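Q: I'm writing up a methods section and want to include an example of the input and output format. Could you take the sequence below and give the corresponding predicted structure tokens, formatted cleanly so I can copy it straight into the document?
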Amino acid sequence: MLTDYATIGLFFLLAISFPLAALGLAALVRPRSYFNREKMMPYECGVDTKGKTWVRFKVNYFLYALVFLAFEVETIFLFPWAVKFNCLGLFAFIEMIIFLIILLVGLLYAWKEGALEWY
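A: Here is the clean output for your methods example:
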């Protein structure tokens, strides 16, 4: 039983030592000083920024992304279910109907709140 813990401890030490070794090696080989000040200046796509660099984005962009992710998860769950549909039986069918109803309620809520309006 103690050998099992020793194996786990060895893997834990290896998991800790590899990232630390990589960071230490990177610290040894990185350049210590920058000769060119231009390298340290921020830029956007190779063009110098003009004006204010912090721009506020509408929350709707993030809401679109969240709704998209919700329906991506739906397809990830629906595909294997559809492949094995004949083998699963009535219980799996009812569970998937409940899952789809929950997603439909989420879609209707997002629609009601205006999360799908693009303006």
